[in-house]
Amino acid sequence: GQQVMQIPQYQHVQEGEDFTTYCNSSTTLSNIQWYKQRPGGHPVFLIQLVKSGEVKKQKRLTFQFGEAKKNSSLHITATQTTDVGTYFCFPGGATNKLIFGTGTLLAVQP
Amino acid sequence: NAGVTQTPKFQVLKTGQSMTLQCAQDMNHEYMSWYRQDPGMGLRLIHYSVGAGITDQGEVPNGYNVSRSTTEDFPLRLLSAAPSQTSVYFCASSLIPGTGAYEQYFGPGTRLTVT
Questions:
Q1: pLDDT of chain A, 110 residues: tens digit per residue
Q2: 3-state helix, strand, coil in chain A (%, to 5)
Q3: What 3-state class would DSSP assign to B16?
Q4: Which of A54, A75, A93, B37 reaches 20 to 30 Å from B85, CA-CA?
Q5: Which residues in chain B touch residue A43, judged by CB atoms under 8 angstroms apart?
Q6: How is A66-86 classified by DSSP, letter by letter?
C-alpha cells in the first residue's frame, strides 16, 4: 500500500530562520495537500498541488510537487511565532483510504 | 454554515463502557472520515465513508464501529472502551477524493479519556 514519510519529525528554529518539511511517497501520487494544525486545534487546509513540478506560493510559504509526483515540500521563509504548529502532508492516490503523513512539528523561538 | 460539528467536546469513560461520538456536516459532502490523534502523534484513519450506506475500514478500525444512514451524519461508536483508546478524535468531511479540490474540513475534535 501507499507509504508516506515526512521529515523531519521536529524542527526548532529561531524566529526569522527558514524552515522546510518534506513528504516522500513510495508510489506516484495523483495530488497532494498540506495542512497546518496549531497546538490544541484541528488541521486546517493550506493548499492542494496537482501538476508535476507545480510550485505555489502563499505569502512566506512555498509549496512544491516533485516532477515524478512522488514527493513534495513546504518551505517557510523567515519564520514567525505564528507559524508554530504541526504541518501534515495528505497525499492523494488511487484509493479513498486517505492517510496523512506523519507530520512535522515546528517550534519557533522568539 | 456550521461546517463540521462534533459532540461531545470532552468525555471520560470507564474501561468497558460504550459510547457514540457524534459528527455532522452541513456542506452536502459525500466523503466523511474519522481520525484519532494520540498526544504528540499524527492522525490515524479509523473509518471512512464515500456516501450514505457505504463505510470502510481505515488504518486502525479495531474497537470502533461506524454507520452512515444519511449524508450529514457519521457517528463513531466505541464498543467497549479501553485505556488505549484515550485520544483526540477528529471527524472530517470533503467532496469525493479525486473529484477536483477535495479540501478536508475538520471538526473541533472530541477529547476522550478512558480510565
A1: 557 889 999 999 999 999 999 999 988 999 999 999 999 999 999 999 999 999 999 999 999 999 999 999 999 999 999 999 999 999 887 677 888 999 999 999 99
A2: 5, 55, 45
A3: coil
A4: A93
A5: 43, 90, 92, 104, 106
A6: -TTSSEEEEEESS--GGG-EE
